[in-house]
C-alpha cells in the first residue's frame, strides 16, 4: 500500500527562557513558524490559503487567512509569528547548597573561606503540561571552586560529569505530564579568597512533541491535479443519464468537499440544480468519484458543475525550548578579629584593671547573621561580670540581647575562665553584618598580682555564620596567643638586725629594720627571728607590732606578719629580750609575695 | 559636700571639717567665706593649701596640716595658735572627731621627686572616712575599716584609676568616692571597675556642689543618699 500523502501544516513553536540566579523567571520569548509543506512527489499545489479563523489569539498574526500561493513539488511555504506566553512548558529549579550536610529549610548560599564546603546541587525539571517532554539535555557548568564531583542520584535518564569540559550532562529521559525529575550532585567547594564566585550556568534544551504554545488550529484550501467532468449518455430515446466524474490525478489525498451540477433546460429557463452533494470524502491518488442523474431531453443536456476540493492536510506541531539560567553568585563569608589589652602590660604583683576589646570584622563578601567569641582568661585574672560588657555594632552601642557566659561562673582570680559571647539572629534584630562592618565587645578584667616569671596567654576564637547556619567561619589565635604583658618590678625586702645591750642585766635590745626597697608593693610579708634558749621575749616597740612568739627546740621564734608594704615602707622594731647566757646571732628570715 | 578637685567639707552636727581647699589655675575651689571649724591641707602644694589660710582666718578655724602645709598657712596669715601640725600616726582628737594622719606621698610634678602628703583616717560622728588627699601610695589604708574612702584617680602625680580601684578592692569600704580626675573618663572607669570587681562597695561619683549623706539607719544599717 502506497503512502498516504497529505499536505503538512507544520507549527513549530519555540520558547527561550532566561532564569535568574535563584531560578526565578527573568524573561521568556516565544515565536513560531507556520509552514505548509507540499510532500507530493509529482503534484504541485496552488491557490494555497491557510485559514486561521479565531485561533490567532496569542499570536501577532493579523489576518484570518494567509495566502501561500503556489507550492511546488517538495516545496515549502513559511510564515513567522510572534507569541505571547507567560511561562514555559518546562520549569527548572537549581538549589545550590553550599553546606549540603546540614539540613535546613532554605539552602546555604555562601562559601566559608579556607574550609571545605560540602556542596550539594539539586537540579529539578518539571513538566507543566499535559503532554510528554523529551529530548531533554541539561548542561550544568561546574565552577572551578568545586572538585570531587559526584552524581548522587538521578531520577531518570543519564547524567555524567566530564572533567575536561567541567560540565555535567544530563539527558536521555522523558518527563511525563505534570511530573518532575531531579539530579543531585555533591562536590567539595574550596575558596581561598573572598571574592564572590559563580555557581556555574545551566542550559537546558527540550522538545514537546505534539504541543503548541499558541491556539492556532490552521486549515488549508488549495488546488491540485484533479479531473472533473460530466458525461452525458442517452440511455433511451430522449432519456439521458448525466454523470459527474471526479478523479484525483495527484499523488496526494484530496478531499472532495462539494459537488454540484446544474442543468440548463432546453427552453432556456432557469438552471436546475441536479446534483448537490457534500461528500467530504478523501480520494486516494487515481481514485474516482461519480454521481449521476437522469433527465429527459431532446438534445444533449447542457450541464455545468461547481466542485470544491482541496488536498487533504495534516497538522504537525511541536514546541522547542531552551532555558538558560545565569550562574548564582556565591559570596564568601570570612571574618578577622583584633584583640587588645589596655594597658597591654601590667605591673607584676599589682592589681590592675585591664580593658579587653575584641573587634570582629566581616572581611568577606557575604552577610553574617551570628558571631561568637570565646575568650580564655588565664589564672591570676579576675574575670568580668556579665552586666559589664559593652557591645558595639557598626560602631554604635548595641543594647539588644546577647549571650555572655563566664565559665566557671565566679570571679575567682585563681582559676582560669572561659568567656563566651554570642550574638545571633542579626537578620531579625539590627540587620546582618555587611561586608566591612564589625562587632566590638569590651569588658574589663582585673590582673591579680601577676607574676613576672609566668606567662598569661589569653587565646581567643571567633566564629561567624550566615542564615541559615552552615560551616562556621573560624578565626583565632594560637593557644599561647594574646599574652597579657607583665612588667617586672623588682621586689626587695631587706632586713637589718642589731643586738644591743639593754639597761638591765641580761637584757638585750634586738633592733630589726625591715624595708621594702623594691619597686613593687610586697604582700604577706613574714619576718621571723630567733631567740636563743635561755632568753625570753619581753616586749616590742611599737607595741602594735608585737610578734607571735612560739617555742622551738633551741629557743623561741618570733614571727611578724604584715599584709602589705609599699615601696619605701620601713618597719623598725625594737624587741627586748631577757635571759642568761650568750646571745647568739642568727639572721632573720623574710618571705613575701 | 564636694567642691571639686580634692576639696570636701565633712559635716557632723555643727562641726565642719574642710579638706584641701586648693587653688587650681589661680581659681579657688572653695569660696573664701566658707565657714569651717577645721581646715586641713594634706600637703603644701597650692592645689592642697590653696585659700585654706583665708578660709581659716575668716571663719576663725583651726588649720591642720603637715609641717610644710602649716608653714605655708602661717605665711598666709593663719595665727600660730590656730595652726596644728599633724604628725604621722599621731591622732588629733576633739569631741565627735578623731583624725589620724599617715605619711603618704605625692609626686611633685613641678620640682620632681616626692613630697609628703598625709592620708587621713577620719572618725567623725559614727562614720569612718578615709581621705587620701593627693596620695600616690596607699600606706596602711587597706587595713582600715572605712565607711567611706575618698581617693584620687587622675594619675597626675597621684593615684591612677587602677591604684584607686586596687585600694578600694583591698580595703573594702562601703562607699568609694573618686576625686581629682584628669578626664571625665577617670571617674567613670573607677565606678565601672568598682561595680565589677569591688564586691560590696558602692562607687559614688560626686559632681561639684553635690552632697553625699551617709548615716546608719536604725543604728545598724548603712545607707547613703546623694543630693
Strand content of chain A: over 45%
The oligomeric state of the chains shown is heterodimer
CATH level-four homologous superfamily name of the largest domain in chain A: ntegrin, alpha v. Chain A, domain 4
CATH topology of the largest domain in chain A: Immunoglobulin-like
Which chains have the largest interface? A-B, 17 and 19 residues
Query: How many β strands of chain A by DSSP?
Result: 47
Low-confidence stretches of chain A: none
**Helix-strand pattern of chain B:** EEEEEEHHEHEEEEEEHEHEEE
Q: Could you tell me the radius of gyration of chain B in angstroms? A: 16 Å
Architecture per CATH nomenclature, i.e. the level-2 architecture of the largest domain in chain A: Sandwich
How many structural domains does the protein architecture of chain A include?
4
Distance between the termini of chain A: 118 Å
Number of strands of chain B: 17
How much of the sequence lies in strands of chain B comes to 35-45%
Largest sheet of chain B: 7 strands, mixed
Which CATH C-level class of the largest domain in chain A is it? Mainly Beta
Helix content of chain A: under 10%
Q: What structural category do the secondary elements of chain A indicate?
A: mainly beta
Choose one word for the global shape of chain A.
rod-shaped
With strands numbered from the N-terminus, the spatial order across the biggest sheet of chain A is 5-2-1-24-15-9-12-11
Amino acid at each position: 500500500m502506497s503512502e498516504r500523502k497529505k499536505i503538512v501544516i507544520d507549527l513549530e513553536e519555540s520558547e527561550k527562557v532566561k532564569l535568574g540566579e535563584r531560578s526565578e523567571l527573568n524573561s521568556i520569548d516565544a515565536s513560531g513558524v507556520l509552514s505548509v509543506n507540499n510532500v507530493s512527489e509529482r503534484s504541485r499545489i496552488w491557490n494555497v490559503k491557510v485559514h486561521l479563523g479565531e485561533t490567532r489569539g496569542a499570536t501577532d498574526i493579523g489576518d484570518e487567512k494567509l495566502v501561500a500561493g503556489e507550492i511546488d513539488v517538495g516545496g515549502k511555504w513559511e510564515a513567522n509569528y510572534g507569541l505571547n506566553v507567560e511561562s514555559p512548558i518546562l520549569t527548572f529549579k537549581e538549589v545550590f547548597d553550599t553546606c549540603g550536610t546540614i539540613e535546613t529549610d532554605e539552602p546555604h548560599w555562601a562559601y566559608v573561606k579556607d574550609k571545605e564546603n560540602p556542596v550539594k546541587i539539586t537540579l529539578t525539571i518539571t513538566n507543566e503540561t499535559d503532554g510528554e517532554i523529551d529530548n531533554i539535555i541539561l548542561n550544568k557548568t561546574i565552577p572551578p571552586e568545586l572538585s570531587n564531583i559526584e552524581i548522587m542520584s538521578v531520577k531518570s535518564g543519564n547524567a555524567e560529569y566530564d572533567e575536561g569540559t567541567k560540565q555535567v550532562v544530563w539527558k536521555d529521559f522523558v518527563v511525563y505530564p505534570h511530573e518532575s525529575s531531579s539530579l543531585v550532585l555533591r562536590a567539595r567547594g574550596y575558596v581561598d579568597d573572598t571574592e564572590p564566585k559563580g555557581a556555574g550556568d545551566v542550559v537546558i534544551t527540550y522538545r514537546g512533541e505534539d504541543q503548541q504554545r499558541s491556539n492556532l488550529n490552521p486549515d488549508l484550501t488549495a488546488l491540485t491535479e484533479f479531473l472533473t467532468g460530466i458525461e452525458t449518455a442517452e440511455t433511451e430515446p430522449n432519456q439521458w443519464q448525466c454523470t459527474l466524474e471526479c478523479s484525483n490525478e495527484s499523488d496526494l489525498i484530496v478531499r472532495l468537499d462539494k459537488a454540484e451540477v446544474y442543468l440548463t433546460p432546453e427552453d432556456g429557463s432557469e438552471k436546475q440544480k441536479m446534483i448537490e452533494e457534500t461528500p467530504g470524502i478523501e480520494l486516494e491518488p487515481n481514485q474516482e468519484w461519480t454521481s449521476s442523474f437522469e433527465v429527459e431531453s431532446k438534445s444533449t443536456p447542457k450541464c455545468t458543475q461547481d466542485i470544491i476540493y482541496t488536498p487533504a492536510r495534516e497538522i504537525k506541531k511541536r514546541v522547542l525550548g531552551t532555558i538558560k539560567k545565569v550562574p548564582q553568585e556565591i559570596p564568601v563569608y570570612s571574618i578577622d578579629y583584633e584583640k587588645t589589652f589596655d594597658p597591654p602590660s601590667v605591673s607584676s604583683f599589682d592589681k590592675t584593671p585591664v580593658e579587653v576589646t575584641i573587634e570582629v570584622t566581616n572581611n568577606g563578601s557575604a552577610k553574617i547573621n551570628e558571631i561568637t567569641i570565646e575568650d580564655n582568661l588565664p589564672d591570676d585574672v579576675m574575670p568580668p561580670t556579665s552586666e559589664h560588657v559593652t557591645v558595639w555594632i557598626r560602631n554604635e552601642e548595641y543594647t539588644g540581647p546577647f549571650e555572655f557566659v563566664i565559665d566557671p561562673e565566679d570571679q575567682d582570680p585563681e582559676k582560669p575562665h572561659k568567656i563566651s559571647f554570642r550574638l545571633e539572629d542579626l537578620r531579625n534584630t539590627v540587620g546582618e553584618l555587611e561586608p566591612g562592618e564589625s562587632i566590638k565587645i569590651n569588658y574589663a578584667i582585673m590582673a591579680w598580682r601577676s607574676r613576672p616569671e609566668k606567662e598569661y596567654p589569653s587565646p581567643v576564637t571567633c566564629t561567624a555564620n550566615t542564615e541559615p547556619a552552615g560551616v562556621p567561619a573560624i578565626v583565632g589565635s594560637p593557644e599561647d596567643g594574646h599574652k597579657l604583658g607583665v612588667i617586672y618590678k623588682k621586689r626587695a625586702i631587706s632586713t637589718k638586725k642589731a643586738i644591743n645591750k639593754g639597761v638591765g642585766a641580761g637584757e638585750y635590745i634586738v633592733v630589726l629594720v625591715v624595708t621594702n626597697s623594691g619597686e613593687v608593693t610586697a604582700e604577706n610579708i613574714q619576718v621571723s627571728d630567733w631567740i636563743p634558749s635561755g632568753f625570753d621575749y619581753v616586749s616590742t616597740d611599737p607595741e602594735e607590732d608585737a610578734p607571735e612568739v612560739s617555742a622551738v627546740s633551741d629557743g623561741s621564734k618570733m614571727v611578724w606578719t604584715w599584709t602589705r608594704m609599699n615601696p619605701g615602707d620601713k618597719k623598725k622594731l625594737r624587741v627586748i629580750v631577757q635571759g642568761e647566757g650568750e646571745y647568739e646571732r642568727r639572721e632573720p628570715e623574710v618571705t613575701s609575695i | 559636700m564636694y567642691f571639686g578637685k580634692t576639696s570636701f567639707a565633712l559635716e557632723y552636727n555643727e562641726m565642719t571639717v574642710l579638706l584641701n581647699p586648693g587653688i587650681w589655675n589661680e581659681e579657688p575651689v572653695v569660696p573664701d567665706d566658707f565657714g569651717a571649724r577645721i581646715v586641713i591641707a594634706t600637703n603644701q602644694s597650692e592645689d592642697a593649701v590653696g585659700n585654706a589660710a583665708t578660709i581659716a582666718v575668716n571663719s576663725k578655724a583651726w588649720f591642720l596640716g603637715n609641717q610644710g602645709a602649716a608653714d605655708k598657712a602661717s605665711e598666709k596669715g593663719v595665727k600660730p595658735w590656730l595652726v596644728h601640725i599633724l604628725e604621722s600616726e599621731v591622732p588629733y582628737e576633739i569631741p565627735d572627731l578623731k583624725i589620724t594622719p599617715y605619711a603618704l606621698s605625692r609626686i611633685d610634678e613641678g620640682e620632681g621627686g616626692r613630697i609628703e602628703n598625709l592620708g587621713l583616717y577620719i572618725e567623725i560622728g559614727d562614720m569612718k572616712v578615709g581621705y587620701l588627699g593627693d596620695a600616690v601610695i596607699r600606706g596602711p589604708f587597706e587595713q582600715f575599716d572605712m565607711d567611706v574612702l575618698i581617693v584620687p584617680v587622675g594619675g597626675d602625680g597621684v593615684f591612677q584609676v587602677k591604684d584607686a580601684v586596687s585600694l578600694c578592692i583591698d580595703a573594702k569600704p562601703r562607699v568609694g568616692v573618686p576625686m581629682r580626675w584628669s578626664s571625665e573618663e577617670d571617674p567613670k572607669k573607677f565606678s565601672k571597675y568598682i561595680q565589677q570587681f569591688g564586691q560590696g562597695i558602692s562607687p559614688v561619683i560626686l559632681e561639684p556642689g553635690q552632697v553625699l549623706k551617709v548615716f546608719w539607719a536604725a543604728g545598724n544599717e548603712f545607707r547613703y543618699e546623694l543630693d
